[in-house]
Amino acid sequence: MRSLSSLRRAKPLALVTVGLVAALLLPSSASADLQSDIQQSVREFLDVGRTAVPRADCGPGSAPENGMQGDVTAADRDSGRSTQGYRCNMSFVGGFAGRGAGITSTSFEHCAYMGSFFPGDLISEGRGVQVLDVSDPANPRPTATLTEPAMLAGTWESLKVNAARKLLVGTGVPVGTGVGYLSVYDISDCAHPRLLNPGPGTNMLMPLPITTHEGGFSPDGNTYWASGIAPGFVSAVDLSDPANPHVVWQGLTGIEAHGFGISADGNRMYISALGGFTVLDISAVQRRDPNPQVHHIGRVFWTDGWATQHSIPVSYDGKPYLYTVDEGGSGGVKLIDIADDRTPKVAAKIKLEINLPQNLDSNIGSSMGGSAFAYESHYCAADRRDNPTALACGWISSGIRVFDVRDPFHIREIAYYNPPARTGQNLSLWNSPHALASIIGVPLMSAPPAARAVLEGQFNPMDALTPRTGRLAFGDVSTDWCLSPPEWRGSQLYVSCSDNGFMVLQLDNEVYTPPADQESIIGS
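and the corresponding C-alpha cells:
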C-alpha cells in the first residue's frame, strides 16, 4: 500500500516532519538501526492511500450511485435525485425518524436507543434519548424516553451498550466536551431501561470528576472509559456497582483523546489521537490495582486522514489487528498490524473512489453546501472479533457501506445504502447535528487532504467548480450524515443516520451470509 512515488513528491514535507516523527517515536521504539527506524516511520507517516476498494456489483432491485463510488453528485443534489436515496444489494425494512438521531445511537437485543443532540433535543417532543422496540423491524415504535441530565445534555459519541452486563451508559456532552454527568441503565427489559445511579453522575448536585466527548466499555462491562478530547484527558469509571459509579483512574494520554478500542482481555486501550493512536497498558485498571498506573506502550501517527475516531480489535488466524477509522481528511479505514503493540504497522487501507487524492476536487465540488463533513468514514462494526467476514461502516454523506473482509488484504465492497436526503426539512430535524450544523456550507473536514492534492498538482479547480460552489453557508441537507456504527443482526443492520433517524436495513442473501458466531463488535 505504501507509495514511494508519493514519498518523493512529498520530500519537502518529509524534511519538515522527520524531526517531529523521530521525537515522537524514539521513546518507545528506538533500536540499534536508528536510521532505518526513522526512514520507515517517516514513510508510514506520509503515506497516502491512492487505491479504492473494488466497487460492489449491484444486483436486481438496486438504485445505484450515478457518479464515482461514494459520491452524491452536484447534479443529483440540485435536481432532487438525492432525496430518493441510493441502494446496492441492501434495502430498507423499517425505521423511526423522529426529529433526527443525534451523532451516534446504539442497540441491544430487539431495542434501539437514539442519541440526543443539544440543544435541539430540548426543543420538540421526545426530549432526551428515545427508546425503540424493534420487535417488528418494519415498524419500530417508541416505548420510553430517558431524560436524566446526561441524556438531556446531548450524548454525542458516548451512548454505548455492554451486552454482557446488560448496561446502557451515556454521558452529557452539550457542545464538544461535557463535564460531570453519566447515567447507567439496566436494560434487561430492553424496551424499558431502569436507571441504576440516581445519585453520583445523575443527581445535578453529585457530578463525577470527568470530562467527556466519547466513551465506551471494557469488554467485561466493569469499566466505562470517558475521553474528553483536548488535552487528552481520559477517566476510568468503575461500574462494578452500577449504583455507585466512581473514578478509579484518570490522566492525560496525549494532546488529544478521541474514541478508542479495547482488547478482548481488557488490558490494552488503543486511544485515538489527531491522526493515529497510542497503545496504553490499562491492565492495572482492569485488575483494580491500588493506585493503578497506565503506561504508554507504542504509537503510530499518519497524515492520511485525521481526527481518528475509534478502533476495532480483531484477529485473523490468531494474529491481532485493528480496524481504525479516520473521521476527517478522507483517510477511510486502516487495517493495523498490532502483533508487536510497541510498533503498530498500517497493513491495508479501505477507501472509496471519492476519497482518493486525485478525486478531492470532485469531492469538494459536490459536497459544497452540505456542511462541515463530506464523504468521511466515522464508525464501523465488524461481524465478529475473530476472523471477521464483514465490516459495516457509517460513511457520513456516502451512507452505510458494507465490505467483505474475509481476506483482509483483498477487501471489496459488497453493498451500500445511502438514505434519502431530507432536503429543505432542516427546521423539523431538531435532534440532527447535520441539520443544526448546516449553517456552515463548506466541507471543512476535507480541507487538509484538498490542500495536499493542490500541492501534489492533483487538484483541478475546474472539477471543483459546480453550481454549488458559492454555497458557503446555510446548507441544503442534500444528503444525510451517517455517523453511527451499523450493528449486526443476522443479515440485517440496526443503524441510525442524523436526519433519517433509526433504520433497519436488509442485506441481500447473495452478498452476505451471517456466520454462526456473529457478534457485532465496535471496539468499545
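(Above: one complete record from the training split.) DSSP finds ten helices and 31 strands in the chain.
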